[in-house]
Amino acid sequence: MPVHTRTCHICEANCGLLIETDGRRVVSIRGDSDDPISRGHICPKGNAIADLEADPDRLTSPMK
Ligand code: SF4
């Protein structure tokens, strides 16, 4: 499954993430050990991005 190198934008730390996906589904999120600042460390909010993505109440199109 593909692994995407991304940056967490939840806070100013901008930790490096490795996000594994299966189609549009997020399979796992872990810290990117190659990121020069966060060096593989992320907090629980970074891991919770998958929950935000899968939240059934998440808006996926404009309301108007
Ligand atoms: S993983 Fe946590 S500490 Fe890192 S940018 Fe995201 S919210 Fe901030």
Short key terms for the protein model shown above:
single chain, 64 residues, alpha+beta, Phosphorylase Kinase, domain 1, 2 helices, 3 strands, binds iron/sulfur cluster
What does this structure look like?
A hairpin with an 8-residue loop joins β1 and β2 (16-22). A three-stranded antiparallel sheet has the order 1-2-3. The protein has a single domain, classed as Phosphorylase Kinase, domain 1. It is 16% helix and 30% strand. It has two helices and three strands. The model has no long low-confidence stretch (mean pLDDT 95). The radius of gyration is 13 Å and the shape is globular. The termini are far apart. It has 64 residues and is α+β, with helices and mostly antiparallel strands. Iron/sulfur cluster (SF4) binds next to α1.
Can you give me a brief rundown of this structure?
The protein has helices at residues 44-47, 49-54, and strands spanning 3-7, 16-22, 25-31. It has 64 residues and is α+β, with helices and mostly antiparallel strands.
Strand order of the largest sheet: 1-2-3
Bound molecules: iron/sulfur cluster
Roughly how much helix do the residues carry, as a percent range? 10-25%
CATH topology: Phosphorylase Kinase, domain 1
Shape: globular
Our measurement of the CA-to-CA distance between the termini, rounded to an integer number of angstroms, reads 36 Å
